From TrEMBL:
Sample GO molecular function, one term: metal ion binding
Pfam families to which the protein is assigned, alphabetical: 5-FTHF_cyc-lig
Catalysed reactions listed for this entry: (6S)-5-formyl-5,6,7,8-tetrahydrofolate + ATP = (6R)-5,10-methenyltetrahydrofolate + ADP + phosphate
Top-rank EC class of the record's enzyme: ligase
Species of the source: Anaerostipes hadrus
Similarity comment text for this entry: Belongs to the 5-formyltetrahydrofolate cyclo-ligase family.
Annotated protein name in UniProt: 5-formyltetrahydrofolate cyclo-ligase
PANTHER family with a match to the protein in the record: 5-FORMYLTETRAHYDROFOLATE CYCLO-LIGASE, ATPASE INHIBITOR/5-FORMYLTETRAHYDROFOLATE CYCLO-LIGASE
Binding-site positions, ATP: 3-7, 131-139
Length: 179
């Protein structure tokens, strides 16, 4: 199966998920990430700002800010290129391209070297930490060579037995789903 075919298959699975399942799964994943030693010990976390059809991270971002952690979120600045901007509150977000919430460009850039752990999105994943993204390569480029723990979050109902991969794909350190 190609990545393109896998993405199509997962889109069909996503259509079958009901709102109740998604809400419970989001809460379960939030609780699990919050309990991770890596999260509890991290001074600085990197976390994507979720959009429709992704595991919800807004509660996690709010929790990290409330705990006094430094929080970096991605800002796409070019084709396949993103940087991390440090937010201090949820109102540091603004609507960007395609209605996606992103950090304000006024937020300071946060260097990768300061990140203690990252929460990474996916379209699908497998239990070995292989990630199927949207195909633009933002995360593979960004995560190349980093040493901080990469925590992938995925709905159990969207996980695959084996995600198709290519040489440049970055393996995640841990996969958390709602089970």
């Amino acid at each position: 199966m190609t990545k393109k075919e896998a993405r199509q298959q997962v889109k069909e699975w996503m259509k079958k998920l009901d709102k109740n399942y998604i809400e419970k799964a989001d809460q379960s994943i939030f609780e699990q990430v919050k309990e991770l030693k890596e999260f509890q010990e991290a001074k600085t976390i990197f976390c994507y700002a979720s959009m429709k059809n992704e595991v919800d991270t807004w509660q996690l971002i709010a929790s990290a800010l409330k705990q006094g952690k430094n929080v970096g979120v991605p800002l796409c600045i070019g084709k396949g290129i993103m940087e991390v901007r440090q937010i201090h509150a949820l109102d540091d977000f603004e609507e960007g391209a395609y209605g996606i919430m992103e950090p304000s460009r006024r937020c300071p850039i946060l260097s990768k070297e300061k990140i203690d752990m990252a929460v990474i999105p996916c379209v699908s994943a497998d239990r070995e930490g292989r990630r199927l993204g949207h195909g633009a390569g933002f995360y593979d480029r960004f995560l190349d060579g980093v040493t901080f723990p990469k925590i992938l979050v995925c709905y159990k109902e969207l996980m695959m037995d084996q995600v198709p991969t290519e040489e440049h794909d970055i393996l995640m350190d841990q996969v958390i789903c709602d089970e």
